[in-house]
Design brief:
The complex is a heterodimer of chains A (587) and B (352). Chain A contains 17 helices and 22 strands. Chain A is of the alpha/beta class and 587 residues long. Chain A folds into three domains: 95 residues, Ubiquitin-like (UB roll) (Roll), CATH 3.10.20; 143 residues, 3-Layer(aba) Sandwich (Rossmann fold), CATH 3.40.50.360; 319 residues, no CATH class. Chain A has an eight-stranded mixed beta sheet, with helices on both faces. Chain A has a five-stranded mixed beta sheet with strand order 3-2-1-4-10, sandwiched between helices. Chain A is globular. Chain B is mainly β and 352 residues long. The radius of gyration of chain B is 27 Å and the shape is elongated. The chains are: A alpha/beta (587), B mainly beta (352).
Chain lengths: 587, 352
Amino acid sequence: MMSSLPSAEIILAIDVGSVNTRASLFDVIDGRYRLVATSEAQSTAGPPLMDLSEGVRLAMDHVQAITGRRLIDESDNLILPTTGFGAGVDLLVASVSAGPRVKTILAGLMPGVSMTSVRRLADSTYIDVVGEISLADNRKIEEQVDLIISQQPDLILAAGGTDNGAHNPISQLLEILKLALGLMSEGQRPQVVFAGNRSLGALVTDQLAERTQVSLMPNVRPSIEIEDLAPARLQLAETLFAIRSKRISGFQELKQWTGGVLLPSAEAFGRLVRYLSKIYDPDKGVLGVDLGSSQTTIAAAFEGELNLTVNTELGIGSSILGLLEEGNLQDILRWIPIDVGESEVRDYIYTKAVHPSSLPTTPHDLQIEMAIARQIIRLALKKARKSWPKGKNSRSRLTLPPIEPILAAGATLARAPKPGQTVLMLLDALQPTGVTTLVLDPYSLGSALGSTAGPVPMATVQLLEAGVLVSLGTAVSPVGKGRAGRKVLSYRLDREDGSALLSGDVLYGELVRLPLGPGQTGRLTLEPERGFDVGYGSLGRSATLRVSGGLVGLIIDARGRPIVLPRERELQKEINQRWQWEIESEK
Amino acid sequence: MYLPPVAHVASNTTIRRVRSLPVPGTITVNVNELVEARDIVGEAEYAPHHQFIDIAQSLGIPASEVPRYLTRERGDRVEQGEIIAGPAGFPRRSVRAPADGRIAAVTNGMILFEIRQDPYLLSAGYPGEVVGSDGRLSVTIENSGALVQGVWGNGQEDIGVMRIVGEGPRDRLLTDQLNVELRGAVLVAGICDHPAPLQQASDISVRGIILGGLSSDLIPIAESLSYPIVVIDGFGSVPLNQAAFDLLNENKGREAALDARPAVPFDPHRPEVIIPLPVANIADLPEDLIPLAPGVRVRVTRQPNNSEVGIVEEVLDKAVSYPSGILARSARVDLESRGSTNVPLANLEILQ
């Protein structure tokens, strides 16, 4: 129906990462949005250009070359809106993750309340926390002042007080900030963002505005019981872009092209995950993992509520050294099925840190890189789960809560040579429980789809329906304790295309892959042994469910939760070799 | 168009570097002045230590009366023991400065006292002419010479006469190569994979070490040493690339300034070796923006063939599949030691 067609038919989505800049063109074909072309160029936000525009133009050039559609005019400007001659776009949406560290001091009142909320706010975006001060701080005031001065932060992110709550505690905090700012040179003073008691906005401005730029944002803790990060996070993004703009050009132009809405890539990715949570099983959460070069984003949505965690100290490129600070090399080695020593893994990590976009061309290097990816995701997930809601977080559950689906993004996951390798990285790193679908973002469209969801939600819906995300398959992960070789469950898979029925037993420690290709569906009957739960309410409870296939098929992961690897290196290698072989060979 | 990272390995170029204080202070040299590497070109009071002194309590007076009894004002510098407030009350009491420092602020009957620390001293880093200064934060120094840029540094800086140690770019740095004759020298070696040579180099007071590859196990030790270590090519058993070795070898016996401050994302600085040279003609500044194209000299940045230097023969239109299974946009490169081979663009760096 013509009336249902949206006003913006041709949409260009830009995502600027620290390594790559992507441009994706969506158009309405036969009444529905379709992905017409997507392209990638190297990002130019870093040296020597320090201008993200060039990377954006290169990516747009590629799209022009692929589609033949002119996007840029003779003056190098975006053609917006479309012309009658098949040129231009109706809408440009954009997201950015590239940029230098935004060194931030967090300031709050109480450890378990405003400090927790402001820390969560910081963890949900591209912020590097270099220090914290609070009224509950045991350090003397002058020590807190010295901390602010010595760290030379770009930003002080402060919160505290419930809306219309008491003034006094905030006044004390402001005194410390005012003192520190007064001791810093003009030009060195950090901006201050206050996301606390709304009624104190005037006081905060009055105290600090003559010394630095102050931004007031919605209270992250409007009442003791309620934490609300999303409104502040959106406004904080503006401040972060402004800070990054001091060192990198091009933000302003890109923002102008979008009509004023430039999103952090993590926020855009989070929107997509939140959207998925609204269309999938409401009893389960949705988990998105975006393994980037300079950060790892974990987006989890439960009942439509997004929990976003951006790990700026953990990435598979320029932020890879964070891995050495947060874990030990044995945690990486245990996933490697070949002869490799700690030194070699450490050398690899340092090499990747100085050449973040470099690629593993040998099978040996690929194994190391995939093991590193597992450990980064594990650490990122561990951190993220601390802020998940009660009942889902690591304090209340050791294993991952029920998730459907898991969305995997980032080049290491999305462009692994074999889809089985991606599946194994996800299963090892996330260790899902019960039944879940593993979905891949092969064209790196996650942020683009999230950016589009705001102005043209229908585009995101239809693009998802069109299959821009690809299913890797359905994973069944029984939970329970067992011994190697003991039966965990029996299965029967009736494929709806009439292929032969598949049935068998799965033993503890095995990974079983059953053929169920993309687009195929089947009825899967699971009969777990007593002591094993496949996510249907209780131990040993049987279930029949409809499952869909994917690039890898149906995977039954009977390795237990958590996966326990042998301590001996030789046995670790053997077991990883076996799992790799099992995931790559169908029963 | 693909713009790989550029590492300079240049025999004759103009080297212009901005040297900055961590916080505003004073630039102590003037434009057109000639400086040596160790000359101090700026200083600043960095990360001062503060202490509250409760004047009201010490003098036994109300906080509101404190300003009346201060003998020094906000911003004043004072010496240890100098009276800063009082006398007041009975018996007559005074407050003295606890250390050399400055009265940073007066608030609520208290003085925030800034205890004087040793100032941060900014050295020139390499000899040259001051060509720019903002007077309080940064100074620009220029010279001509050879330049070799690396991938990692241990944070130190120094200058010394360059000496080649070992047989060539693949040779390991060993303790028996190090003796007192190398005191004060900057050493050039292929690979270092043992802590003993680094320690021995410290014992004989070398001024720095330039390496092709450093085992990353040694990074904590390297970071604890007081002399600079610049790693040119990578981590592990990675030889010094031939182009850099040849250039350093040609200049052995000359002074080399090592800036081993590590690279930071979104900062153009790279660890580097500057060899000041007298030149007849002023050379151009090195190019930082070079599209990958046939004829361009490149270095491979990871295994296999890590640190090998070659010339681009062709930037391939189609992605190439590698033994790992990955598909990557690639170039065909004529490597000096291996001949023609395909390398992902992402694994190349231009050497210019």
